[in-house]
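Q: what sequence does this backbone want?
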C-alpha cells in the first residue's frame, strides 16, 4: 500500500488506479470494515487525525479530481463529500523520497511520465498537504 504525498498528476495510469484502490482500502481499514492492514505504516498519518475518515475522503477527492482531469471514470460515490477540509503537513524530505521512488517505477512502466517528472524542478504535494522542511517521515519504511 502506498498513499502518495506527491501530487497524483505525477502518477502514470497504473499508479493512479492503484492509488485510488489503495486509498479506498485505507478508508475501509479506518472505518473498521476490514481485518487486514490495521497496522500498516501508510495509515499512521491518517490515524493521528481527529477525524481520519474526513482526511481520507478529502485525500480521495484529490485523487478523483486528477482522474476526472484525465477523463477516467472513477466512482465519486465512493467518497463521502461531507468531509471537513483540512491541511496536513508533509516534509520536503518525504516528497523528495517519494519522487525518487516514483521515478524508479516510471523508468520501467512509463517513459513519458518518467521524463516529465525528471524535468520538474519542484515536485508538488497532493493538495491536502502543505510542505514543510524536514527529513523523511518516521512512518516511511526505507
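A:
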Amino acid at each position: 500500500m502506498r498513499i502518495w504525498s506527491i501530487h497524483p498528476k505525477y502518477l502514470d495510469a497504473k499508479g493512479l488506479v492503484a492509488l485510488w484502490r489503495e486509498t479506498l482500502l485505507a478508508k475501509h481499514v479506518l472505518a473498521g470494515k476490514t481485518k487486514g492492514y490495521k497496522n500498516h505504516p501508510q495509515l499512521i498519518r491518517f490515524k493521528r487525525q481527529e477525524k481520519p475518515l474526513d482526511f481520507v475522503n478529502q485525500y480521495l477527492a484529490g485523487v478523483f479530481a486528477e482522474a476526472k482531469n484525465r477523463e477516467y471514470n472513477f466512482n465519486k460515490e465512493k467518497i463521502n463529500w461531507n468531509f471537513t477540509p483540512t491541511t496536513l503537513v508533509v516534509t520536503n524530505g518525504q516528497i523528495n523520497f517519494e519522487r525518487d521512488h516514483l521515478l524508479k517505477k516510471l523508468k520501467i512502466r512509463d517513459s513519458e511520465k518518467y521524463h516529465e517528472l525528471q524535468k520538474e524542478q519542484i515536485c508538488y504535494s497532493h493538495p491536502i498537504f502543505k510542505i514543510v522542511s524536514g527529513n523523511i517521515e518516521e512512518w516511511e519504511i526505507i
